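Task: encode each sequence below as C-alpha cells.

Item 1
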Amino acid sequence: MELSIKDKKENAALLRQELICELTYEKAMPSRKQIREAICAATGADPALLVIVSAKGGFGTNKAAVLARIYKGKEALAVERGHLLVRDGLIEKKAKAAKKAAPAKK
C-alpha cells in the first residue's frame, strides 16, 4: 500500500488540516484502520485527532481517493459529524432511547 498526499489545506477557522490523498494498493481496498495508520505515518498526526471523511476506490483499479481531516485538539473534533467519529472509533455509538411502553388496552 502506498499513500501520496495530493493536497493539504489549512482551515484555521475550524482548527484543522484537510487532506486529499491518493492510495495505491495491490489486492483489496485497505480497511479504514490501515488507511488511518498510513496517513498518521506520513504526516506524524495523532490518531485520536484524525478523521477519515471518505475513501472511494474505483471499479477495476487499484487506486482510491481519500479525504481526511486532522484536528488541532480534542475540542475541535466537536464540529465533526458524529457518524464519522463512530466509524473511526473515536467515540462510542450512543444507545437509542428506550421505546415508550404501549398504553394498555381496555
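Item 2
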Amino acid sequence: MACMDDIDRFAPLLTDDDINERVEQLIGRACRAQLWLLFLDERAVMLPTLMPNDELPAPLDAELAEGIAAMLRQAIGGTPIESVILVWERPGGPIASESDRQSAAALAWACADAGVPVRGQLISHDFGVRWFGAEEYTGLLDAAGTVEG
C-alpha cells in the first residue's frame, strides 16, 4: 500500500484500469470488512479524502444503502465531487459472493435514486483488488428497484 504522497494524485483516472490501479495502490489487499468511499472531481482526478466505513451489515440492506446515498448526495452538494468510487474491502477470494452482489446492487440502486454518480465499484480481497462490474449485480434488482434475494 502506498500513501497519497507517493502517488501522482493529479493524474486523472480516466479508465477502469486507472481506477483499479489506484485502489490497488491505496487500499490493496483486504484486512477487514469495510466499505471505502473515494471521490473524483469533474476532471476524474481523485480528491485526497478516502472514507472507510466499517461495522456495516453484510449484506447491506436497502434502508442503510439509502442512508449512505443520502449522505453522499449531501456531501456532493457545493463541493468539487463529481462522482464516487465504492470499494468493498472484505476477507476472502476475488469471486463475488451473494452478499457482495446484494450489497453492491442495493447501494448502486440507492445512489442512482439519490442522483449520486457512481464511477465504479471494486472488491478488495485477500489477493488484491478487482473491478466489480455492474453486470455482476444489476440482475439482482427487480422491476420495483428492490434487491431480490
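Check on item 2: Residues 11-140 form a domain with the Cytidine Deaminase; domain 2 fold (CATH 3.40.140.10). The first helix runs from residue 16 to 26.
End of task.
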